Amino acid sequence: MYLIGLTGGIASGKSTVARRLVEHGAIHLDADQLARRVVEPGSPCLDAIVAEFGDGVLRHDGTLDRPKLGEIVFRDDDARARLNAIVHPAVRELSRKLITKAEQEDPDAVVVYDVPLLVEAQVDHPFDLIVVTSAPKRAQVKRLVEERGLDPIQAEARVDAQISDEDRRAIADVVIDTGGSLAHTMSQADGLWVDIEKTRRAKR
To answer: What reaction does this enzyme carry out catalytically (predicted)?
Structure first.
């Protein structure tokens, strides 16, 4: 198996790169989706979040009210750290199981694990390659406003709340510049796939 860690700032083109690699045959695991799975009603993770932050973070149907929780943790570093201490270990455990399952089903699989907080959460899977998507701040803000409907001040705050691009680049084996056209991003993802295939052939 060949395991790729894919990370990057908010609205930096991770999903675009992941989709392109899937088109080439990769298996995609999305940490955001896993984070939703581990907090489903009845999960130990959700119980721990309610114990920490109160019943106010639940909707009437017993599911997690993510926007409400987001309001609590977004501006409070301590609250965010407490939430991460609950969620990150659960996501790590689930991702480990899914990566193992993918390898058992196909020892030759290429798995792309898309982890926005790869640096912050200190994700320590044995990655063969770490890929970072990188876009200028103005491009990220523009995408958040146009594609996700945030107002510009909210969008800027979201980008600023994350770690710096330099910190991500420091752990990168490959940086994909997503500040230009979609075609430019795609061609870099295609080139990455060619390099991955060469590496895997050389190992066989």
So the answer is: 3'-dephospho-CoA + ATP = ADP + CoA + H(+)
